[in-house]
Each structure stands twice: as structure tokens, then as C-alpha cells.
């Protein structure tokens, strides 16, 4: 039997270009999420999930998430996380220009929100290895740099942890103008919240 199916791509909010798939056919409607990160109320504002004034009747949801586990009883909002990181970065970088933050980001994409907001709030560009991976995201280009002489780094190295232990950033920086750097590492990761007890 043949069946016509309409497939709609919905923003997943995970990393740039990430989508959820909504399959609609004669036998019903299915939502496949893939990895997603939506704030409360965000799905309610997605017009493509609605038919007229009501939410579409979805028979099945394939929920693809690492965090569908009771141990992740609370994952803070993106805004709460940004606020905490911003406070820490501001207090550290304001000590001296030799106080540097390394954002230990394990994935290549997905931290753009953090980079843009830190840069806007603190007026400090974020050092990355290459700009070409962001060439299709013009809104971030004024917030990142390949100049290592900045106080916020998100540069990467295959053995990042080894580099950091030697008080050295992954890009190789250890000092500026002969003055040693004071480095703290921030690992933006949701996994941490699963390791905490209620």
C-alpha cells in the first residue's frame, strides 16, 4: 500500500540547524524529536504544531534524549545557566587582564548562545581555533576571534585536559607579555546535573 506522508521540519533548539520531524499521514501523526532543547512554552508557540486554534493530535512521539532519566530531576533553563556562567566569568576576568577563562566545550557546535551572550555582556571576544565553521552564522562572527590575546577561550585540542593541567590553554598560551596566565576552566555540560543528588 502507498500512503502520502507530509513531513514538516520544526526547530529543535539544540544546535544551529537542528530539527524535529513531524510526520503526518492517513494513519496518524508522529513526532520524532532528535536531540532538542526547548524552553517552557516554546512548543506552544510553534504554529506548525497547530491546526487552527488547537494543537495537532500526535499519536506517537519518539523522544530522543539523553536526559529522559529520573536522575535528571532538574535541568536549569538556558537563561539560568548563562546567568551563573556570566557571574563567574565576570568576577574572574575583572581581577586582571591575565585572568583567563577556558570554556571546555566538547562539541564543535551548540555553544553559540553562550559565546554571543558572554561577548555582548562583557565586551570580550571568545577565542576559537577557526572561524570557517561559523561562516554560515553571521550573527556570531563579531563575537568570536582567532586572536589568542583575549580573556575568554573556547579553543580546542585533542587532549584538552592534558593542556589545562599544565596551566596552558589548548591554543598553547601560557602567558601574555611575560606574565603567567591565571586560568579557570568551565565545562558547560548538562551531564553534571545527573551526577547531583536531589
From TrEMBL:
Subcellular location field: Nucleus
UniProt KW Isomerase keyword: no
InterPro entries tied to this protein: DRMBL, RibonucZ/Hydroxyglut_hydro
Alphabetical UniProt keywords: DNA damage, DNA recombination, DNA repair, Endonuclease, Exonuclease, Hydrolase, Nuclease, Nucleus
An MF annotation (GO) of this entry: damaged DNA binding
Gene3D superfamilies in UniProt: Ribonuclease Z/Hydroxyacylglutathione hydrolase-like
Any Gene Ontology CC annotation: nucleus
Pfam families for the chain: DRMBL
Domain DNA repair metallo-beta-lactamase: 138-193
GO biological process: DNA recombination; double-strand break repair via nonhomologous end joining; interstrand cross-link repair; telomere maintenance
Database matches in SUPFAM superfamilies: Metallo-hydrolase/oxidoreductase
Keyword Cytoplasm: no
Family of this protein: Belongs to the DNA repair metallo-beta-lactamase (DRMBL) family.
Protein name (record): Protein artemis
Organism encoding this protein: Urocolius indicus (Red-faced mousebird)
Gene behind this protein: Dclre1c
Amino acid at each position: 500500500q502507498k500512503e502520502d506522508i507530509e513531513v514538516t521540519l520544526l526547530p529543535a533548539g539544540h544546535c544551529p540547524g537542528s530539527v524535529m520531524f513531524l510526520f503526518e499521514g492517513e494513519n496518524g501523526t508522529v513526532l520524532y524529536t532528535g536531540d532538542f532543547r526547548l524552553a517552557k512554552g516554546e512548543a506552544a508557540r510553534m504554529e506548525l504544531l497547530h491546526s487552527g486554534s488547537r494543537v495537532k493530535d500526535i499519536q506517537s512521539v519518539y523522544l530522543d534524549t539523553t536526559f529522559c532519566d529520573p536522575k535528571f530531576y532538574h535541568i536549569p533553563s538556558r537563561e539560568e545557566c548563562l546567568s551563573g556562567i556570566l557571574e563567574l566569568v565576570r568576577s574572574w576576568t575583572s581581577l586582571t587582564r591575565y585572568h583567563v577563562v577556558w570554556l571546555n566545550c566538547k562539541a564543535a557546535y551548540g555553544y553559540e548562545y553562550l559565546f554571543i551572550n558572554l561577548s555582548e555582556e562583557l565586551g570580550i571576544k571568545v577565542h576559537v581555533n577557526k572561524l570557517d565553521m561559523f561562516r554560515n552564522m553571521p550573527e556570531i562572527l563579531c563575537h568570536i576571534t582567532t586572536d589568542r590575546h583575549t580573556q575568554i577561550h573556547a579553543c580546542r585540542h585533542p587532549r584538552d585536559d592534558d593542556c589545562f593541567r599544565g596551566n596552558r590553554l589548548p591554543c598553547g598560551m601560557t602567558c601574555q607579555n611575560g606574565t603567567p596566565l591565571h586560568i579557570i576552566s568551565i565545562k558547560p555540560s548538562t551531564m553534571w546535573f545527573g551526577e547531583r543528588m536531589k
